[in-house]
Amino acid sequence: MAGAFRTTPTHALEIDMAVPPIELTMEMTAEGYANRLHRLRHTNPVIDRLPDEWRHSSQTGNPPPLPPRTKAQVKKGTKLTQLERTARLMYQPEMGEKIDPFFMLPWQRTAKDRPQRLSISGVPKGCKKAEEAKKHNEKVEKLVRDNAHLLVYSDGSMREEGDGTRRSTGWGIVRYHLGTEVFVDKGRLGHNAKVYDAELTGIARAVEAAKEYAD
Predict the structure, then answer these.
(1) How far apart, in whole angstroms, are the C-alpha atoms of residue 153 and residue 144?
(2) Ranked by mean pLDDT, which of 33-42, 76-85, 143-152, 156-165 comes out on top?
(3) Which of 182, 159, 174 is CA-nearest to residue 206?
(4) CA 32, CA 41: separation in Å to the nearest integer?
(5) Which of 58-67, 153-162, 164-173 shows the lowest per-residue confidence on average (mean pLDDT)?
(6) In whole angstroms, how large is the CA radius of gyration of the chain?
(7) How far, in Å, are 14, 87, 89, 127 from residue 133 at the CA level?
(8) Torsion of CA 130, 135, 137, 138, to 10 degrees
(9) CB under 8 Å to 161, separation ≥6 — which residues?
């Protein structure tokens, strides 16, 4: 509430109440949301539904189920709304910069910087669980006889308590050296954390435990 007369000029009232003009407010909102769009990956379903100028290439990772309207399908003489006319005057995709949120910072090292000390490998697509378990057991049998290797397992889980309205998450790790269990640790993350948080916490704690044991 401004407490001013109804006939007070809008421009003077905006200055008195420190309210930015509607043009600047809309421009700030549009640019802020555009910056969020520039951070999206090319496989994101939102970026797939935007015009081609929002992507470096016209190819979409997950094309929408219905194709967008082409220029030929748009009726001639269709009037734009006031919001559409304002949007065309404010922001254009080429005015922004594409940002990769997953790009590593220059001072951060990754597994590629330590090829002899750290390697990350995943399970190939289309593999069978029994075959991969057999390969894992065969590899473990070789590692447990090597004094230079340390096996560390981590896990995160969630369970329901009481009537199912409360959930508790936790993590746990265990490490083996020469076939002998040398360390066990576990912890709780409370009722607000997710299984994903517990999994990552377990991995981080396993890396710390392996480093402490190696030192």
Answers:
(1) 14
(2) 143-152
(3) 174
(4) 17
(5) 58-67
(6) 28
(7) 68, 56, 59, 10
(8) 140
(9) 167, 168
